[in-house]
Each structure stands twice: as C-alpha cells, then as structure tokens.
Design goal:
Distance between the termini of chain B: 22 Å
Shape of chain C: elongated
Helix content of chain C: 25-40%
Order of helices and strands of chain C: EEEHEEHHHEHEEH
Radius of gyration of chain C: 18 Å
Chains: A mainly alpha (about 250), B mainly alpha (about 220), C alpha/beta (about 200)
Structural class of chain C: alpha/beta
Low-confidence stretches of chain B: none
Strand content of chain C: 15-25%
Largest sheet of chain B: none
Number of helices of chain B: 10
Radius of gyration of chain B: 18 Å
Largest sheet of chain C: 5 strands, parallel
Helix content of chain B: over 70%
Low-confidence stretches of chain C: none
Number of strands of chain C: 8
Oligomer: heterotrimer
Structural class of chain B: mainly alpha
Chain lengths: ~250, ~220, ~200
C-alpha cells in the first residue's frame, strides 16, 4: 500500500471523512487552550505590555500564510509530475485559506504595530513581503476562477504557482535590499537564544499547532467540496455519453 | 523566426497597430504627476526617477493583452503552433518585438520626460541604463502573462493582476538604481542585480510561456 | 511515408467525442470526413495536426508534416496579400509564392490589403497558404466555406495537383469536391466515444 492510493478521489474522500472530526476537534481544543492560556495566564511583557499577546494570532497565521503557499507549490508539482486530480484540487482549495491567513497576519500586525511603532503600516520588508504574497494569492485564485476547463485551469495555475514562487522569493530579497525594516527578529527559531521567553513560548506552540490543524481541516473540507463538484460533472458527462450510445 | 519578428514590427507600425499609444500614455502619466503632487521642484526631483520607472512599467503593461490574443483570435497562433517554429521561440520573438515597439521607445523618451519632472542631472545616464536593462524583462514576463490569459475573454484585467506582482523585483532594482543615481549615490549594485534578473527572465521565461501556451492551444 | 491513425480517441475538455478511429492515408490519397455539426471533426483534425493530445491510440507519420487550415485563416488585415503569403512561406522555410497566387487566382490582388478582400478572397488566400508550406499532409477543416463554385473548382484543382505530387489530404467537408477520395463518416465513432470513460470518471 502506498500513499498514492489516496490520489484516488473516492479513497481520498473516505479517508478525509475519517480524519476530519479529529482535525476539527484537535484544532478547536488547541486554539481554545492556547489562546486562553496565552491571553489570560501569561504575564504582560515589560516593554510591550499586554499588546504582546496578539502574538498568539499573529505568528501562527503568518506561518500558515507561507506554509499554505508552500503546500500549494508541492501540490502543483505533484499535479504536473503525476497528474493526480486530488492534488490540483487541494492546491485550489488551499489558496483561499492562505489568503485569509495572510490577511489575519497583516491585520494583527497592524494592530500590534500601532502602539509599538506608532504606525499602522510601515514599508518594512516583512510587511511588504506579506502584501506581495497577498497579491500572488489573489492572482492565483483569479486565474482558477477565469478558466472553465478544470484540467486546463489546473495546468495553468500550477505553472503560475511555480513561477510565482520564484518571483516571490526574488521579491523578498529585493524588498530587503530596498528597505531595512523595524520589524522585530524572528519569534521562533531553532537557535534557542533568540526565542521569546518560555512563558510565551509554550502557549504559542499550542496556538501554532491549532492553526496547523485548522488549516488541514479546512483544506480537506474544501478539497472534498471540489471533488464533489467534479463528480457531478463526471456524472453529467456519463449521462450524455449514454444518451449518445442509445441514439 | 526572423519573419515573425519582422511581421510583428510591421503590424505594430502600420495603421491600427497601436504603436505610439504606450508612449502617449507614458507622457500623460508623467504630465499628470505634478498635477497630483504639486509643482514644487525639490519634491519632483526626489520622486522623478521612481515616477518615470512606474510610468514606463504601466505603459509596457498597456499593450500586453494584445500581444498574443490577436494571433489567438484570428487563428494565426494555431497555424504557428503547427509550423516548424517552437512555441518557446514564438513567444520569445513576440516579446522581443513588443520590446522594440514599446520598451525601447520608452527608454529613449524617458530622459526628455525627466526634464519635465526636474530629474537631477546626475540621474539621466543611470535612468536610461536601468530602463534599457529592465524593460526587456518587463516584456518577457508580460509575454508569460499574456500566454496564461490568452484563451480568456476580456483577460486584460486578469493579465494585469497576474503580471504586476511578477514585476516587483524588476521595478525595485530598476527604480532603486535610478533613484540612487539621481541622489548622487552609487548605483552599481542595484544595476547588477537588475541585469541578473533580466538575464534570468530572458533565459527561463520563454520555456514557462511556451508550456503555458501549449496548454492554452489544446 | 503514410499517415497512420490507429484506434484513436479524441476529446474536448476530457470528454471523448470520437473513439476507435483507424485509417491509413497513403501518398497521393485523400480522405473526406463527413458528419453532422458538432460531431467532432474539428477535434479530430486538431489532434492529427498535433495541436492536442489524443485520449487514446496513436497518430503516426504526422509530425512536422502537417499543414493545417482551420475556420480562421490567420490573416493580418494590415498586410497585403503577397506579404501574408510570403510570411507563411518563410515560417515554413519556403520562399516561392507565385505558384500559389496563380493557382488561387490571387495574382492581380497581390498588393491589396488582406483587410480589403471579400470573404471568399480571404478564404482563397487562406487556402493558398497551404501550397506555400511545402508540407505533405494537408489537414483542412471546412475549406469551402464562403467560396463560390468557381473558387471551389480552383481549390479542388489545387488539392488534385497536391495529391499528384505525392501529397495527402484530410478534409472535413459537406460538399462534393469531385475528388477521387475515400469518405469516412464519423457518426459510428461518436457512439463508440459515448461508451468510453471521460477523464472525470476517476471521480466516480
């Protein structure tokens, strides 16, 4: 048995139906625990006050905004190389989720930035990169919507995703070159020295876990919807074919 | 290939080809800027390089939706696809023709418009150089966008939405070089990075565009 | 070398429209396709021309040998008749356009802008394009649309000359061109395609 078995839409739907309750439940649990812990049971930062607590929304959503695009990239590659329909549909399903994550990251960032930097928005490299990522998401979704034939749309959007990734990375470096920012350093990294303090760290991890599970649940749910749409189409095609055989 | 290049040039230059529209648009954008930000010479001098780059970029964008769509609609693209020319070559040649009829005139006219915007004397050379280096990339990236949207009715707006984010690195390095030179700073680094992006785009983009065009023709 | 189509299935948007097609086209021979509108003749011709992939089966001997003429002629209104033709000739690595101009009675119009031609004259110019490609297999989709009787004769003569030179022609048409050609009715293959699974079948 291989992983590719679940490239079959029917098997994918069956698996997804079994996994989804756990994902939804896990996401809800993690988010409630993480956010309550983070908002009410951690001390205020000595410099930033209670404003710092927006970190529990800001960091996970920013992570997922990038990871969603990364997932779309992998799914697009799988579609281009192995031509599994589920993969293309999963990429399509992930895009709107990614957009919302990007928007959450941008808005929470603005809310955080206002008291800290005295401005809602600054053309800081990280903020700017996220704005550019947002534009890439919009283009990707718009292309899906504009093309009628689903396989053509899948081909074109996959290539756009690959090319877009290259340009998004280029833009990231270009923006860095163009303006050195005021954004604080990474909240999380493998190098423990730079991390936020432990009291903030653990609830943050729980929140990130919650966002990951929520993302997975949303993508599985949306992919299921896309598969059912295609299924309707296939049934209609089969009926038309049967009518032709009779005629 | 040469025949296709020459044909595209001839079509652009003859009646109805739209040659000069991009230039006129560029001129109008530049004229409108002082109306919107005020006539103060110091302010204009500071933003001149950026405005010229943005104007050139938008003027480039203007004619992209006709780049492949005309040939698609009248069937010529199907016929070209069955010809000995590779689709990658066809896209590259059409992008080259687009650059000669749109990008190159913009590069040449930019210094004249620089006078209108009070661009500091130190900035002219690098402005022309950066536009000359950057506009081929704009045409080629635009050709990729045109190939993506060629089968879509009224794809012009979508084309802009897809292409503009891809223009970001080119715009940043190009405008940064021109801006630095105008301020009397060293502009070598952004120019080199701009040249690198253009070289990469010219080398790789025709293949992506050819691939996309093949999907759209089937 | 002949054009061999074996067990070919062609489709639009992943839905098969014709299936189980097999035929061989030998040098000097023509094949006329018949069938009602929407039967899939255009899809079949596009597949043979290599513009789209077959859903099943193979087309052998067509690569880089097909000259394709669709409903649209790909003419540029701003270019003259001779310029249009010379462009296509040079794309296909040829240079002689005189014979084609003569064959379709276009010589006196050579300096006229293509945009100023009548529909029938445009069509003749589109067909003259086939002659300047130097390709062996002509794939023609409804070539006689908007042609008058005299022009149809010109076209039939051109096809006959092409076949005489060892060329081949695959023509979808409703009218009798007076060619000595086999006729293939696509209707039975349409029924066969109805029984074939669409690409989306994997979703069921």
């Amino acid at each position: 048995m291989s992983l590719w078995e679940y490239a079959n839409p029917v098997k994918f739907l069956a698996l997804s139906a079994r996994v989804q309750p756990w994902l939804w439940g896990g996401a809800g649990l993690c988010l409630v625990v993480g956010l309550v812990w983070g908002f009410f049971f951690t001390p205020d930062d000595f410099r930033q006050g209670s404003t710092v607590k927006i970190i529990y929304l800001h960091v996970p959503s920013a992570l997922m905004a990038i990871n969603a695009w990364f997932m779309m990239l992998v799914a697009s590659l799988i579609w281009i190389i192995r031509r599994h329909h589920v993969s293309a549909l999963a990429a399509k399903a992930a895009a709107p989720v990614g957009v919302v994550m990007t928007l959450i990251a941008l808005f929470t960032g603005a809310i955080w930035g206002q008291p800290m930097w005295g401005t809602w928005w600054a053309w800081d490299p990280r903020l700017t990169s996220f704005l550019i990522l947002f534009l890439f998401y919009l283009g990707y979704i718009a292309l899906w919507e504009a093309i009628e034939d689903p396989d053509t749309a899948a081909d074109l959007t996959s290539i756009l995703c690959l090319v877009g990734t290259v340009f998004a990375v280029l833009s990231r470096y270009a923006v860095n070159f163009w303006n050195q920012g005021l954004h604080q350093g990474a909240s999380l990294s493998l190098d423990k020295e730079e991390n936020v303090a432990d009291v903030f760290y653990f609830p943050l991890l729980v929140c990130i876990g919650g966002f990951v599970l929520l993302f997975l649940a949303l993508v599985l749910y949306r992919t299921g919807t896309e598969i059912r749409v295609r299924r309707t189409r296939a049934l209609m095609a089969r009926e038309a074919g049967a009518a032709r055989v009779e005629a | 290939m040469r025949a296709l290049f020459l044909r595209d040039l001839a079509l652009a230059l003859r009646a109805g080809g739209g040659f000069g529209l991009g230039l006129a648009f560029f001129l109008i954008v530049v004229v409108l800027v002082p109306f919107s930000v005020g006539p103060e010479p110091a302010l204009l001098a500071r933003i001149a390089a950026g405005v010229l780059w943005l104007g050139a970029l938008l003027a480039c964008l203007l004619s992209l939706d006709r780049l492949l769509a005309v040939d698609f609609e009248d069937g010529a693209l199907d016929l070209l696809a069955t010809s000995p020319l590779p689709l990658e070559g066809i896209v590259a040649v059409k992008a080259a023709a687009h650059w000669v009829t749109t990008g190159l005139p913009l590069v040449l006219v930019a210094p004249v418009l620089g006078v209108l915007l009070n661009l500091p004397a130190a900035g002219y050379g690098v402005l022309v150089l950066s536009l000359g280096l950057g506009t081929p990339a704009l045409s080629m990236i635009g050709a990729f966008g045109a190939a993506l949207t060629v089968g879509i009715k009224r794809g012009g707006l979508l084309l802009s939405l897809l292409v503009l984010p891809l223009y970001v690195p080119t715009l940043i390095f190009g405008a940064e070089a021109a801006r630095r030179a105008a301020l009397g700073l060293e502009a070598g680094t952004p120019l080199l990075l701009l040249a690198g992006i253009t070289a990469g785009v010219l080398a790789c983009m025709p293949f992506a565009a050819g691939l996309v065009l093949r999907v759209n023709l089937r | 070398m002949e054009l061999t189509v074996s067990d070919l299935a062609v489709g639009r948007g992943g839905v098969p429209v014709l299936a189980g097609l097999s035929f061989v086209l030998r040098p000097g021979a023509a094949l006329v396709l018949r069938g009602p509108n929407g039967a899939g003749k255009t899809t079949l011709l596009r597949t043979v021309a290599g513009l789209q992939e077959p859903m099943a089966g193979t087309v052998r001997g067509a690569e880089d040998r097909v000259a394709y003429a669709a409903h649209a002629d790909g003419l540029k209104a701003a270019l003259s008749v001779a310029e249009n033709l010379a462009f296509w000739a040079s794309v296909f690595g040829q240079s002689d356009i005189e014979a084609a101009l003569q064959a379709y009675d276009l010589a006196h119009l050579r300096h006229r802008r293509a945009g100023a031609l009548s529909a029938g004259q445009k069509r003749r110019l589109g067909l003259a394009r086939m002659s300047v490609t130097g390709r062996a297999i002509w794939v023609l989709d409804e070539p006689t649309v908007s042609l008058d009787a005299a022009s149809v004769t010109l076209f039939a003569d051109a096809v006959r000359a092409h076949l005489g030179d060892g060329g081949m022609a695959l023509i979808a048409t409703h009218i009798d061109l007076g060619l000595d050609a086999d006729v293939l009715d696509v209707a039975p293959f349409r029924a066969a395609a109805g029984a074939m699974a669409s690409v989306d079948e994997v979703f069921l």
